[in-house]
Specification:
Layout (H helix, E strand, L loop, with lengths): L4 H8 L21 H6 L23 H13 L6 H13 L3 H13 L6 H9 L2 H5 L6 H13 L3 H13 L7 H13 L3 H13 L7 H13 L3 H13 L6 H13 L3 H13 L9
Helix pairs in contact: 3-4, 4-5, 4-6, 6-8, 8-9, 8-10, 9-10, 10-11, 10-12, 11-12, 12-13, 12-14, 13-14, 14-15
Protein name: Pentatricopeptide repeat-containing protein
Family: Belongs to the PPR family. P subfamily.
InterPro entries: PPR_rpt (IPR002885), TPR-like_helical_dom_sf (IPR011990)
Length: 283
């Protein structure tokens, strides 16, 4: 039986699959208070309408089977999906035939097969083999990978990767990485958890919230019609000398308008102008 989504990624990384509450035994390795944060479940509406061929990956027992199946897939019309080629490469990596995996990846690239680079990075750069070979990705690499996962609606995988980076001290997350996870949480309706992550940044992290990160949460709260919570965070930004900008005010004004709080919206508009922050077309 083939696994996909969070289960496939967890298996590929040799990690327990999260239960229905989003927890797993591997999270016990997290230092507090990050343990508490990442042990809390969150939801995501990940769906796929991709039409795929029926390919029996279970018949792969040895490396020769991989190349035989690869030749079969190349003869299919239309070609199998990107996901199926990625699954084939994942199997090779899990068999620890790393050189073969890299060779197949290069051959697919030469043939113009659009392999999912984010998932391949997941399978390769986090594998101990590559660290032993001295191939160690940097903060920028992981930042791009996290952003790619979020853009592809793979927020659960992004959170698992972020957790792994912290748990195994692979690198110290920077503002971009925190911002990406906050954005992903808000995108999937987990704004309350995004706020919790903001608090952890303030209390535990070396990186502190900034205007961009706070704007993401303010916008998420307003879209969820939690405008009072957004106002609290907005006030905290000013108190902590995190300067609001036109994006902050636009989110707040929009949130107040959809809740028919016209007087508050007008007040913020006037305050915005007084702060020399000029309205734009969105305002």
């Amino acid at each position: 039986m083939r696994l996909n989504g969070v289960a496939a990624v967890a298996l590929a990384c040799h990690r327990p699959v999260p239960d229905k509450h989003g927890t797993s035994s591997s999270l016990l390795l997290l230092p507090p208070p990050l343990l508490q944060f990442f042990s809390l479940g969150f939801h995501s509406s990940m769906t796929s309408n991709v039409q795929i061929h029926r390919i029996d990956f279970n018949k792969i027992k040895k490396l020769e089977d991989v190349f035989f199946l690869f030749d079969e897939m190349l003869r299919m019309r239309p070609l199998p999906s990107t996901l199926q080629f990625t699954l084939l490469l994942t199997d090779v990596t899990k068999m620890k035939h790393y050189s073969a995996s890299l060779s197949l990846y290069k051959e697919m690239g030469a043939l113009g097969i659009p392999i999912n680079e984010y998932i391949m990075c997941w399978n390769w750069v986090l594998n101990p083999f590559f660290f032993r070979r001295g191939i160690v990705p940097n903060v920028a690499t992981f930042g791009i990978l996290l952003k790619g996962l979020v853009l592809e609606d793979r927020v659960p995988e992004a959170v698992i990767l972020f957790t792994k980076l912290i748990r195994e001290r692979v690198c110290e997350p920077n503002e971009v990485m925190y911002g990406t996870i906050v954005s992903g949480l808000c995108k999937t309706g987990n704004t309350s958890r995004a706020i919790q992550l903001l608090r952890l940044m303030e209390e535990e992290g070396k990186c502190k919230p900034n205007t961009v990160i706070d704007n993401t949460v303010v916008d998420g709260l307003c879209k969820d019609r939690m405008v009072d919570d957004a106002l609290i965070l907005f006030t905290e930004m000013i108190e902590k000398c995190i300067p609001p900008n036109v994006v902050t005010y636009n989110s707040m004004i929009h949130g107040l308008c959809i809740n028919e709080r016209w007087n508050d919206a007008i007040r913020l508009l006037r305050e915005m102008v007084e702060r020399k922050i000029f309205p734009d077309v969105h305002t």
